[in-house]
Design a protein that fits this description.
The protein has a single domain, classed as Glycosyltransferase, CATH 1.50.10. It has helices spanning 2-14, 36-48, 52-68, 70-81, 114-130, 135-138, 140-153, 171-188, 191-207, 242-255, 276-289, 292-304, 326-333, 341-368; strands spanning 34-35, 95-96, 209-210, 213-214, 256-257, 260-262, 274-275, 315-316. Helix 11 (276-289) packs antiparallel against helix 12. Strands 5-6-7-8 form a 4-stranded antiparallel β-sheet. It has 369 residues and is mainly alpha-helical. The model is unreliable at 362-369 (pLDDT under 50). The chain is globular.
């Protein structure tokens, strides 16, 4: 464990650009970019590991990116207010080059809102952990632009965390927006931002539940492993909430296999294997519930997927939903991304969650003695 934790921290630091961006995967050309979503969770892991300077450099990078492209936010708002239709080129991108520019050579699914909520959450968490409240003023303009962007677009269909289904409103995306807005509102003391977060939460509870569980998107009856985010870290509901417990039970039944966790039942990306970061997420959730044994079991599974260099992949494809798709993706983009920095970040998060849960167990044992 210690070696993989150390390797994970070192790998992330080594692959942070001079500008502050975290490359998604240094050995997978398609991922030679920085996603706000992935990067925000990586920055959170760096904060947990005590690497606050690294996290701060990432937030500076995001701040520059948003201010650089702020004219898009203003244009989107004007078009909405004028009743004009929006085109894909109008939206802020989900991924950027490491120097913070848009990549326009490929037809990427760029309208994704989740990363913009996630960066607000990660920034607010960074402030809480470091006590650096002056960051709010330093990044004030990019925070305002992000809140304004979310406020006007949160109910629009957009691509999900897996960069699919752009015609749907996705539950985990809304969770990211709620988590970001509610967290930054608390730091700002801004009631209007808090009220926007509450509206999004109310929408989730009204429109994203079917048959007693949360669902993948509005109108769906399927589950997706990213629904774990509603409890950890975004606190749409408590980890012990009845609907959340029912959702996790379905995820365990339909998407878990021999320790690893699939994204969703019909996933065919590289055949649809078991994702390292999601397995860590389920372990994080177990730790929140106090199921330390379950979290440790998943941690061991993750550790077994590391190669001799201690590199974690994006997914393990020994058990896939549809094997016929695996060679198609290999032919298109090469073997599965390894290392994936987001996988390493979530391993750091899981180890931290287990340390906290273990400390809680020790305190309880002392109290009872």
């Amino acid at each position: 464990m210690g070696d993989l934790f150390k390797t994970s921290v070192e790998l992330i630091l080594e692959n942070q650009s001079p500008e502050g961006a975290y490359i998604a995967s240094p050995s997978f050309p398609t991922y030679h970019y920085c996603w706000l979503r992935d990067g925000s969770f990586i920055a959170y892991a760096m904060d947990l590991a005590g690497e606050h300077r690294s996290a701060r450099r990432f937030f500076h990078w995001v701040d520059r990116v948003i201010r650089r492209h702020s004219q898009k936010v203003e244009m989107v708002i004007r078009k909405i207010q004028a009743g004009q239709g929006l085109e894909q080129k109008d939206f802020l991108h989900t991924r950027y080059t490491l120097d913070g520019n848009e990549e326009n050579e490929s037809d990427w699914e760029n309208f994704q809102l989740d990363g913009y909520g996630t960066w607000l959450w990660a920034l607010a968490t960074h402030i809480e952990m470091t006590g650096r409240a002056e960051v709010l003023a330093e990044f004030g303009e990019s925070i305002r632009q992000t809140v304004w962007y979310i406020e006007n677009l949160w109910y629009y269909p957009n691509y999900d965390v897996w960069e699919e289904n752009g015609d749907k409103v996705h539950t985990s995306t809304l969770a990211c927006l709620y988590g970001g807005l509610s967290s930054i509102a608390e730091r700002l003391g801004d009631c209007s931002v808090a009220a926007l977060a509450k509206r999004i939460r109310s929408y989730i509870l009204t429109n994203c539940v079917a048959d007693g569980t949360f669902v993948k998107h509005v109108g769906s009856r399927d589950v997706d492993s990213s629904l774990l985010w509603l409890a950890v870290p975004f606190r749409v509901v408590d980890a012990k909430d009845e609907t959340m417990l029912g959702t996790v039970k379905r995820i365990e039944s339909e998407l878990a296999h021999d320790g690893g966790l699939h994204r969703y039942a019909r996933d065919t990306y590289y055949g649809g294997g078991e994702w390292i970061l999601l397995t860590c997420w389920l372990g994080w959730y177990y730790a929140e519930l106090g199921d330390v044994a379950g979290a440790r079991r998943l941690k061991r599974w993750v550790e077994q997927t590391a190669d001799a260099a201690g590199h974690l992949p994006e997914q393990v494809c020994t058990h896939v939903n549809d094997p016929s798709f695996y060679p198609r993706w290999v032919e298109r983009w090469g073997e599965v991304a390894r290392p994936l920095l987001w996988s390493h970040a979530m391993y750091i998060v899981l180890v931290n969650a287990l340390m906290k849960a273990g400390a809680g167990e020790m305190k309880e044992a002392v109290r009872r003695s």
